[in-house]
Input
Amino acid sequence: MTSRHLTTSRGTSMTKRTTLLLATALTTGLLTALPAATASAAPSTSSGLAGDFNGDGYRDLATAAPGATVGGRTDAGAVVVTYGSGAGVKASNRTVVTQNSASVPGTAEKGDEFGSALAFGDLNRDGYADLVVGSRGEDGGAGSVTIVWGSKKGLTGGRIIADPARSSHTRFGMSLAIGDFTADGRADLAVGSTGADVQIFRGGFTKTAGAASRTWVVPSFRTGDSYGVRSLAAGDINGNGVDDLVVSGTIVGQSDEPFDGQVVYLGAASRPRTQRTLDTGGRQPVVAGDVNGDGYDDVITATVLVHGSQVGPGEVIAYLGGPHGISPTPQAAITQDSPGVPGATRAQGTSSFGDSLAVGDADGDGYDDVAVGTPYETVTTAPQTGTVTLLRGSAAGLTGQGATRWTQNTPGVPDLNEADDFWGSAVHLADLDGDGRADLAVGARHENGGQGAVWTLPGSAAGPTATGAVSFHAAAVGVSGTSAQLGSLFGQ
Output
């Protein structure tokens, strides 16, 4: 929802429907914030923009490296925040957060995977976005959730969100979303796990206290390490000024056969209520954005066939929102064989179109576009190097017409295609340079043998462009570990 953010008197980033969207070296574990560049056009007070952690008027980019080595502990995990500016983001203007960082609770331990889920929003209503970090491997797989507070100096300090139902699930915090789901004007935090429930921590967060209270929704999801609440998304689907919650996983229906899909919950004062179940055939990441520009958020998800180690062709599916909530009929189901989409569906094991998704208005035309990662795709002869495709929003909704595609071999994109890079492991659309168009960020979790890397392509009137594209590898932002996997995911 990049193109339609408004700022309220409380400094909360919202859409016109009040949507709340979603240094020292790491071996010493200190939180090191390199000073943000000062732009003459940027305000000196907090901006209230979604994702603006230091309040300078530019959205920032949060990138996870869940396999990073911290203090000698492998897979402890780290999160890198590169601060936006009039020139976008750059590696030198960053903060690296770990569980060994000063004032961040916890201790970096082997296998914690700090950064295995990310979300952002202004939880304490001070005008600065806060970062929420999931650590699915904490305490042997029990999981944990940490808030890291935004401030004028950037991210600093934090607090733990205690798991209120630890015995009923594992991997608490493996999915996250922030929005005003309870219609009180305050940001709530939704947390998923391997269980069938979603814990919603109601707004009222402060730096010394947790949520005001807790509620929960209980979708009929299959539970277990490979199941539970795989993905969460927030958006105002029915346009009533209250955020709605979309939950993705494997659903146990009335028959004995489970199916992959989403449950849509409409926000309400008491607790979110079920509006519809979508049998999409996919439990891939789900995102919400207004692809047809009608003022209602739409739900975009994907189905990617997975058979053991084999990943098959994918399909991106869009459901339109409206005054009565989400439509039961897809507006679009787009594959690499759809008209206007570059390339073609690949054979089993070499595709994964839709493995990662992001939404935002990349060309400034008033319609949100969808970035689609295909990290397992073969490019020329390099297997699993990966591609990213931008599908366009329009008055009719999501379309393959006018789609564009990038690889590391695209002229102007730094580096070159290599086998097993998994370029497109994560994608993100947000206006990082303040020009009113969303910039495209791309992660490649296996670049340089598993260290990982991140690219950004500026938005333009024609959409993302390789002109001015930049990249940074794990070592350039102070992340260590041969399997750090920087670029595994971005905050949404």
